Amino acid sequence: MDPIHSIIITLFLFVLTFFNPGANLFTVVQTTLSSGKKAGLTCGYGVVLGDAIYSGLGLFGLVTLMSEFGSLFSLIKILGGLYLFYYAISVFKNRTQLNLSTENTQEKFPTGTYFRRGLIADLSNPQTVLFFVSIFSTTISPATPLWAKVLMWLGIVLASLIWRIILCQTFSLSSVRRTYSRVHKVVGKFVGLVLGALASKLIYQGISELMSKR
Question: What 8-state DSSP symbol labels residue 84?
Answer without folding.
Answer: H
